[in-house]
Amino acid sequence: MSERLNVAVLYGSARKARQGIKAARFVCHQLEARGHKVSLLDSEAYPLPMLDRMYKEYADGEAPDVMESVAKILREADGLVVVSGEYNHSIPPALKNMLDHFQKEYLYKPSGIVTYSAGPFGGVRGLANLRAVLAELGASAIPSAFPISRVQASFDNDGKALDTAYGERIGRFLNEFEWYARALKAARANDPVD
C-alpha cells in the first residue's frame, strides 16, 4: 500500500437544499477507500464568521475555537481537495470565506479541485477563479480537475455514485493528486518552510 496521506476536503455552501455535500461525501469515501485520513471541512459544521480578522491576526490561543479547529486540520493536511459549486462563474461565498481565513496553513500543499453544478457543465466556469485563489494562497491546484454535472442526480445523500463512471474517473484524478501530495510532503520534510 502507498503512503497514507492526511487530506482536508473543503466544502462551503450555505444553501438550505445543498446538493454539493453529496459530491463532497463521495470524494471523502473515495479517499478513505484508498487508505487516507480524511477531514471534511464543511462550512455548515465549521461556521466561521464573515472574515474580519484572519487566523494569523490573532495572538496564540486567542482565535475562536472553530477557527483553531480548522487551522489544526489544515496544518496537519498533506493536501487539500476543494469541492465547489459554481455561482455566477465564481465560487460560493461560504467557501471563499472559509479559504480566506487562513494562509500559511496552505503553503506548499497541493490542491485538487472538484466542481459541480445542477446543469451539464459541471461547474467548470468557476474553476478558473478557484485556481487563481488557491495559487494566491500557496496551494496551487494540480493540472487535472474533476467536474460533476447534474450533481443532484449523480449521488445519493451518503455520497454513493449513482453512475459507475464517476468511480472510474475519480481514480485517475486521485492518482494525480496523490502524486503531488507525496512529492510536496517529501519536499517540505527535506526543506521545511517557515
Helix-strand layout with pairing:
Layout: E1 6-11, H1 20-33, E2 37-42, H2 65-76, E3 79-85, H3 93-100, E4 111-116, H4 127-137, E5 141-148, H5 151-154, H6 164-190
Parallel strand pairs: 1-2, 1-3, 3-4, 4-5
Structure commentary:
- The chain has 6 helices and 5 strands.
- The protein has a single domain (6-190), classed as Rossmann fold, CATH 3.40.50.
- The longest helix is centred in the last third of the chain and has 27 residues, at 164-190.
- Strand 3, helix 3 (93-100) and strand 4 (111-116) form a beta-alpha-beta unit.
- By secondary structure, it is α/β, with parallel strands linked by helices.
- The protein has helices at 20-33, 65-76, 93-100, 127-137, 151-154, 164-190, and strands at 6-11, 37-42, 79-85, 111-116, 141-148.
- Helices cover 39% and strands 17% of the residues.
- A 5-stranded parallel sheet has the order 2-1-3-4-5, with helices on both faces.
